[in-house]
Write a structure and sequence with these properties.
Largest sheet: none
Structural class: mainly alpha
Helix content: over 70%
Radius of gyration: 13 Å
Strand content: under 5%
Order of helices and strands: HH
């Protein structure tokens, strides 16, 4: 079951913008960089799970 709430091309643009946003936040401090890395790791796990269900 796919959990897409927006068209694929729009989702891709939003995800690309999110990556840039989180990279800017991560650059602000070492602590923020660690938090962002945790979020990115969680997103990778979710993406892998989504692909396995497809």
């Amino acid at each position: 079951m796919e959990r897409t709430f927006m068209p694929g091309d729009e989702r891709a643009r939003v995800e690309a913008a999110a990556v840039k946003f989180w990279d800017r936040i991560a650059a602000e401090s070492e602590t923020k960089a660690k938090v962002v890395q945790v979020f990115k790791g969680g997103n990778v796990a979710v993406e892998r799970a989504d692909h396995c269900q497809g």
